[in-house]
Every structure is written in C-alpha cells, then in structure tokens.
C-alpha cells in the first residue's frame, strides 16, 4: 500500500503515547491523519464510531487506544475488558464496512514469561494479569472476526514523547532523589514510540496482515533501562537493582517478555535500531 494521500483515522492519535507518534509518522509520509482522543470519539460507542467513519471515509483505521494502566486494571476489570477486549473487534467490523485496513496494537504481557529466548508470533499466549488477559482477548476477538485486512502489532515497554512513561518518570525522579531502586529481574524489549510508528508504516507498505512483533533491538531489565537513561542524561543519581519481590505491584508482570523481531525484519528488510540508540535520541530531546 502507498501511504501517501491516504486518510487514516487514529484512535488515541491525539493524546496517546504511541498514537501521537503515529500521527506524526503518517503526516510525514504525506497521508491525512485524523488524530482522536476519547473526547472526540468514544470507541465504546459503535454509533459514534460509525458516524465518524462515515464522515471521514478512511482508507486505514488505526486503534492505538486502549486501557493501559496495568495495576489499576486489577480494580477496573470491566473498563479494561470493554476497551481492550470488546472494542477492537467492533472497530475492525466497522472498518471492514468501509474496506479500510485495520491496525491494532497488543502487548508482550500476553505471554507468561517463563521462556528465556525471545517470543515469536508462533508462541502460545498465556496471560495472567487483567491487562494481559484483556489484550489477549482483544487479539482473539480480531482473529475470530477474521477480517483479512487486519494487522496486529505486539509491542512492549514503550517510551517516547507526548505522554508520561517509565523513562520520563525515572528522569524526573532522578532530579529529586540521590538513589533510585529499580527491578532487575524482569527482562524485556524497550520500544521507542516514534520508531514503532515508522516501522508500522513499513509493514503497511508491504501489505502485511496478521500478527507481528515489534520493538527496538536488544533486551534489558527495567533497571538497565533506568540506569542507561540516567547515565545518558548525565544525572547525579545512583540506580540500584532490586528483585521484583522487593517492589510488589497489584498486577504481576512476566519475568521475561523479549519479542523476536525476525518476522518483521524478514517482511520489511528493516532491522530496528538498538534500544540504547533510540533512548539516546529521546533523552537528548528531553534535555533540549
Ligand atoms: N505503554 C506501553 O508500555 C505499552 C506496551 C505494550 C503495548 N502497548 C499497547 O500499545 C497501544 C498504545 O498504548 P499507549 O501506551 O500509547 O496508550 P496510552 O498512552 O495510554 O493512550 C491511550 C489512548 O487511548 C485513548 N482512549 C482511552 N479510552 C478511550 C475511549 N473510550 N475511546 C477512545 N479513545 C480512548 C486515550 O484517550 P484519552 O487521552 O482521551 O483518554 C489515549 O489517547 C495499546 O494498545 C497498548 O496496549 C503499550
């Protein structure tokens, strides 16, 4: 597909961490993005969505909207399932009425985390947190619907401009504390939102459909990510590793959720840059 001149409705495109980067990437590619927040259009209201699609007549519908508060989801299960499990297949069905390509994002948290080699698209899902189960149900709903022009991208550990995220929080805390303690026994793939947006367009250019894993190259722990961010920002703050058992959270996270990028690389011919290089760009942007 040629992206240029295409009308792209982006749920989450006005206020979401990934959505804002997607809006910029589609703009840069010469498309006509229609970025939305929940105030513009509620994805839980099919009539509102249908009216919007009727008005915009999109070539592409991108769902970067979701319930993303992993711990709060344990207390707000209905909300998490409505947004992450019920809404995606409804959106895809409405996109299908307009023959629009449907792009949806999912998460590494659909995996159990008991592997020690990167998860491929062939690995079976086995989520255990409310967030993970709701996102996995969303994927299943889309696969069951079976709309052929559907692209599902699982990404992980997002950071980037436009909305608060783990890296930003660590850098803000480093300004007012001498020491940060961060878990070092959860391993994953940090993903820079602008890179994930650019790579999404590369998949669309190849007419990719089905499930793809997408992250920056490499892997680290939350401690590794925080210490590198603090180091790159030149902040005087010690970052001390702690086990997950010393930082209990309401929702349990997978101990290992690195995503295998082989299918993406084979399909697009592009290898995502290392997370450290992407982080350096982000930190430079924050400091300027
Ligand atoms: N963040 C991560 O580390 C991470 C990791 C792996 C996968 N993912 C996945 O990547 C995708 C994007 O995540 P993100 O972190 O960029 O999300 P985010 O920053 O939390 O943004 C969520 C977006 O969803 C919108 N939204 C919420 N409820 C809505 C509703 N009822 N109707 C319409 N829009 C609604 C929000 O709009 P308002 O601002 O108006 O509420 C916001 O724009 C999600 O599918 C997420 O599961 C994220």
Summarize it.
Helix content is 40%, strand content 17%. With 288 residues, it is an alpha/beta fold. It has a domain at 7-163 and 191-216 and 258-272: Rossmann fold, CATH 3.40.50.
Q: How would the blueprint of this fold be written?
A:
Elements: E1 7-11, H1 17-28, E2 32-36, H2 46-56, E3 60-63, H3 77-97, E4 101-107, H4 130-145, E5 150-155, E6 158-159, H5 166-176, E7 179-183, E8 187-188, E9 191-192, H6 193-205, E10 210-213, E11 220-221, H7 222-232, E12 238-242, H8 262-268, H9 275-287
Parallel strand pairs: 1-2, 1-3, 3-4, 4-5, 5-10, 6-9, 7-12
Antiparallel strand pairs: 8-11
The structure holds NADP nicotinamide-adenine-dinucleotide phosphate.
NADP nicotinamide-adenine-dinucleotide phosphate binds next to α1 and β4.
How would you describe what is shown here?
- The chain has 288 residues and is of the alpha/beta class.
- It has a domain of 198 residues: NAD(P)-binding Rossmann-like Domain (Rossmann fold, 3-Layer(aba) Sandwich), CATH 3.40.50.720.
- It contains 9 helices and 12 strands.
- The strands form 4 sheets. It has a 6-stranded parallel β-sheet, with helices on both faces.
- Helix 3 packs parallel to helix 4, helix 5 packs across helix 7 and helix 7 packs across helix 9.
- The radius of gyration is 18 Å and the shape is globular.
- It starts with 6 loop residues before the first strand and ends with a helix.
- It binds NADP nicotinamide-adenine-dinucleotide phosphate (NAP).
- Belongs to the dTDP-4-dehydrorhamnose reductase family.
- It catalyses: dTDP-beta-L-rhamnose + NADP(+) = dTDP-4-dehydro-beta-L-rhamnose + NADPH + H(+).
- Catalyzes the reduction of dTDP-6-deoxy-L-lyxo-4-hexulose to yield dTDP-L-rhamnose.
């Amino acid at each position: 597909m040629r992206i240029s001149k295409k009308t792209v409705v982006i749920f989450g495109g006005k206020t979401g961490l990934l959505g804002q980067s997607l809006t910029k990437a589609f703009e840069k590619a010469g498309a006509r993005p229609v970025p939305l927040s929940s105030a513009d259009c509620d994805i839980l209201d099919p009539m509102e969505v249908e009216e919007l699609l009727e008005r915009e007549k999109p070539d592409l519908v991108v769902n970067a909207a979701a319930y993303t508060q992993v711990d709060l989801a344990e207390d707000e299960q209905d909300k998490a399932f409505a947004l992450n499990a019920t809404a995606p297949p409804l959106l895809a069905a409405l996109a299908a009425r307009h023959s629009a390509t449907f792009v949806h994002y999912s998460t590494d948290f659909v995996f159990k985390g008991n592997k020690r080699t990167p998860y491929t698209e062939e690995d079976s899902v086995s989520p255990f947190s409310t967030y993970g189960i709701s996102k996995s149900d969303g994927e299943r709903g889309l696969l069951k619907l079976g709309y052929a022009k559907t692209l599902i991208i699982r990404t992980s550990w997002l950071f980037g401009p436009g909305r608060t995220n783990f890296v930003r929080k660590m850098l803000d805390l480093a300004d007012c504390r001498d020491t940060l303690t961060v878990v070092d026994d959860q391993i994953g793939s940090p993903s820079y939102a602008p890179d994930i947006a650019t790579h999404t367009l590369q998949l669309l250019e190849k007419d990719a459909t089905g499930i793809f894993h997408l992250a920056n190259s490499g892997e680290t722990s939350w401690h590794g990510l925080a210490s590198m961010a603090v180091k790159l920002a030149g902040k005087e703050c010690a970052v001390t590793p702690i086990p997950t058992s010393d930082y209990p959270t309401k929702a349990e996270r997978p101990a290992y959720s690195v995503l295998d990028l082989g299918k993406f690389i084979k399909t697009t011919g592009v290898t995502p840059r290392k997370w450290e290089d992407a982080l350096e760009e982000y930190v430079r942007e924050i400091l300027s």
